[in-house]
Write a structure and sequence with these properties.
By secondary structure, this protein is mainly α. The chain has a domain of 92 residues: RNA polymerase sigma factor, region 2, helix turn helix motif (Rna Polymerase Sigma Factor, Chain: A, Orthogonal Bundle), CATH 1.10.1740. It has 10 helices and no strands. Helix 1 packs across helix 2, helix 7 crosses helix 10 and helix 8 packs across helix 10. The chain is elongated, with a radius of gyration of 19 Å.
C-alpha cells in the first residue's frame, strides 16, 4: 500500500480507487473488532460499513498524529461501543460464537479426537467464558479483545484507546482478575 500521506491526500481529493484500496486493506480487521465487541456478525457487518463511511466523511480531520490504521481502528472501537451502549437499553444476550470461535473452530473437525461429547463440553465452556467476558466493563472487554483476539500489542492498544500504557496494562490486569473471579466456581469443579 502507498504511504499514508499519499493515500489520505488522494482520498481527500476524491479518489475513490484510493479509498477502495484503504477499505480492502483494513476491512477484515475492522470487521473483527466490531464483531468481537458487539458479538453479532450481522450487526458487525453493518457497523463495519458505517465505520468506513465515517472514515470517508472524516478523512479531512485526520492529522497524522498516529498511524492511519490506528485512527481507523479507534473509530471502529468507539462506534462499536456506542452501538453496544445504545443496545444495552434493550439488554440482549451476546452471541458467544463470534467472540471465542476462530475460523478453524467453525470448520468441520479434522481430528478424530474431537468427539461429539468434547465438542459439547467446549461449547458449554465457551458459553460460560462469554458470559464472564460480558460482565467486564466496556474498556476492559475492548482491551482484552484487541490483545487476545486481534493480536495488538499494548502500545498499539494505547493508541487505539487513546490512553497511557499504564492504563492499558491496568485494564488488562483488571479484566483477567475479574474473569478469574467469575470463573473460579467453574474452575473448582474441574
Amino acid at each position: 500500500m502507498e504511504t499514508e500521506r499519499k493515500i489520505v491526500d488522494k482520498i481527500r481529493g476524491g479518489d475513490h480507487a484510493a479509498f477502495k484500496t484503504l477499505f480492502n486493506h483494513h476491512k477484515r480487521t475492522v470487521f473483527n473488532i466490531c464483531c468481537r465487541i458487539v458479538c453479532n456478525e450481522e450487526e458487525a457487518e453493518d457497523l463495519c460499513q458505517e465505520v468506513f463511511v465515517k472514515v470517508y466523511q472524516s478523512i479531512h480531520k485526520f492529522q497524522h498524529h498516529s498511524q492511519l490504521s490506528t485512527w481507523i481502528f479507534r473509530i471502529a472501537v468507539n462506534h462499536s461501543l456506542n452501538h453496544v451502549r445504545r443496545k444495552r437499553l434493550s439488554r440482549s444476550i451476546p452471541l458467544y460464537s463470534y467472540f471465542f470461535d476462530s475460523e478453524a473452530d467453525r470448520s468441520p473437525p479434522e481430528s478424530p479426537e474431537l468427539r461429539p461429547d468434547r465438542l459439547l463440553e467446549k461449547k458449554e465452556r465457551d458459553k460460560i467464558i462469554a458470559w464472564a467476558v460480558g460482565t467486564l466493563t466496556d474498556k476492559q472487554k475492548v482491551a482484552l479483545v484487541l490483545q487476545k483476539y486481534e493480536g495488538f500489542s499494548c502500545k498499539e492498544i494505547t493508541e487505539i484507546l487513546d490512553c497511557s500504557m499504564a492504563q492499558v496494562q491496568s485494564l488488562l490486569q483488571r479484566a483477567k482478575k475479574n474473569l478469574y473471579k467469575k470463573l473460579q466456581p467453574y474452575l473448582e469443579k474441574i
